[in-house]
Amino acid sequence: MKEQPGHIDQRELAHILHEQWGLAPGRLRHLPVGFGDHHWELTGAGGRRWFITVAELAGGWRGTSPAAGYADLRASMETVTAVRRAGLEFAVAPVPTSGGQARSSSVISGPRTSRTRTPR
């Protein structure tokens, strides 16, 4: 989405990225791109860059409830992971959390959202 979402606390997002993926952001910058999710660029202390997506799980094109939105997102992430594993390099699969998940289902400031990260 083009505007930085007011309901997502950037400090809380940084904490979840550190807790779930072990990323300590040197810089976390909102990117005004996309049409349905929120995106940030994280630059780690070592200079490596990551593309972070925070998905709104209810409403819009993802369904009527967080559960339906999460099921849709999960199917999408599993599909792109399978495409990448099949050797198709154009597919950018999500990086698993430290617990092996392709995404995190943490709650950020009220509405249920889900995060994924991909190398940039």
Would you write up a description of this structure?
The radius of gyration is 14 Å and the shape is globular. 27% of the residues lie in helices and 25% in strands. It has one domain (10-119): Phosphorylase Kinase, domain 1 (2-Layer Sandwich). The model is unreliable at 107-112 (pLDDT under 50). The chain has 120 residues and is an alpha+beta fold. Strands 1-2-3-4 form a 4-stranded antiparallel beta sheet. The chain contains 2 helices and 4 strands. Strand 2 and strand 3 form a beta hairpin. The longest helix is centred in the middle third of the chain and has 20 residues, at 66-85. It has helices at residues 10-21, 66-85, and strands spanning 25-31, 37-44, 49-56, 113-119.
**CATH T-level fold name:** Phosphorylase Kinase, domain 1
Judged by helices, strands and strand pairing, the structural class is alpha+beta
The residue fraction in helices comes out at 25-40%
Name the CATH architecture.
2-Layer Sandwich
CATH class wording: Alpha Beta
Distance between the termini: 19 Å
- Please write the string of helix (H) and strand (E) elements: HEEEHE
- CATH superfamily heading: Phosphorylase Kinase, domain 1
Low-confidence stretches: 107-112
The strand order across the widest sheet is 1-2-3-4
